[in-house]
Amino acid sequence: MHYILGRIVVGLVVSLISFIAYSSQIFIIWPWYGREWTVELVILLLPFNVLVAILFWNYYLCVSTDPGTVPSGWKPDTHADGYEVKKLTGAPRYCRMCQCYKPPRTHHCRDCDRCVLRMDHHCPWINNCVGHFNYSHFIRFLFYVDVACSYHLIMVSKRVLSAMNGYNWDEPTTTELILIIMNYVTCVPVLLAVGGFRYSLECGVCAIETNVIRSIYHFINLSSNSTTIEGWEKDKVATMVRKGQIRAIKFPYDLGKRKNLKAILGTSNPLFWCIPRPMPGNGLNFELADHSVPGEVWPPKEPEIPRAHVADSPWTYENGTVNPSLVPSNASRLRTKRKPRNQDMDGVYNLPPYHPDFQEGGIQQSSSSDQESDDEEGGAFFESNRVRRGSEGYEVRTVDREEMMRRYMEELNSVPDRYNRYEPEPYSESEESDNDDNVPLGTVRRLNGSVQV
């Protein structure tokens, strides 16, 4: 993300948090209590302001803390356990963009243009990568967003219920009503987006969040000591295991629930988990689980799927030999196997016995003609096109227009009674005499002058 655009996004996030936190107190809660300080008002607002202050502090730590990068000249210790290697060569992982070796769980971020230690994702809402040194601040920021928004909704909803069940003097003013609606419109989507929904896009090895990050998803990763990228890798490994491509492999950095929380939050005491503190370790090496196998690569290599052999030429068999003969197509074979249309089955005929074309025990000329015509029409393409069996193409015999016209005329004359061709007869005087039969007798006498008055 651009430097100026990132600063603008951070400013919008700070403005949104400030609006939700202070507009509800100044324009909703303060008028509700009569604009006077009371013990009940202090008890209501003091915890909320403490949550907002810790939320701002963790957000500042997320934005300002460097997630960690590879030290200059760092090289992996190939004799120690836990160093990662390339899947293909087995050599230590190397970044061609940064021109340096990659420590375990390190990935290159295209937005930051550098390798980030224990990279989780690149978050545009903090204009920074979430890595080894600010991941614990990011987790606490998500936690305080969920808690503060929930407290805010309870506080505002309490004012709405009081107005609905109270008297006329307790009704909210127009300003209060507008601010109540605006607080619901801004706070509810933030709580649902941060706490319930997540939509991310993968950009190389960098995940760009297009919506605020789902805290539940990261809390699950927190309990398993994995990042967002490693979560995708575990899903891919589970798919390959389910398909039977590889054997089951356990995640090597899952130390157990309690040790995972200690490795990220810095302490095993739950009372100090919410206190801001950096993540322990240097981000260059990590403790491995007891179930990890020495020399096992994570993520495992995806097996190569064997592909079918493709012949060099389409006019070959599967074994590579050439097919020298041309075999008739299926339409030509079916033509010889088709039953006569005159007789569908034994003893049953299509034509009744009194039909003039019916012949008992024989094949009718008209039916066979229809059969031949159907076969010729349906297999016209295959007669001029022969296909090699076991191949992927056709051999087409070129025919000029004269040849096509000659064959067409032969087809018309070869099949008897197929077409009734009309040929006009020359005019004769007999036709005129025949037409006189249809003229009325009175008209004929008048024309001949034989009408008597």
From TrEMBL:
Segments crossing the lipid bilayer: 6-29, 41-60, 138-156, 177-197
Palmitoyltransferase DHHC domain mapped to chain residues: 91-234
Reactions mediated catalytically: L-cysteinyl-[protein] + hexadecanoyl-CoA = S-hexadecanoyl-L-cysteinyl-[protein] + CoA
Active site: C123 (s-palmitoyl cysteine intermediate)
Pfam family, one: DHHC
Enzyme class: transferase
Biased composition range(s): Acidic residues: 426-437
Comp. bias intervals (Low complexity): 359-370
Function: Mediates the reversible addition of palmitate to target proteins, thereby regulating their membrane association and biological function.
Family, as annotated: Belongs to the DHHC palmitoyltransferase family. PFA4 subfamily.
Protein name as it appears in the record: Palmitoyltransferase PFA4
Taxonomic source organism: Ephemerocybe angulata
Gene: PFA4
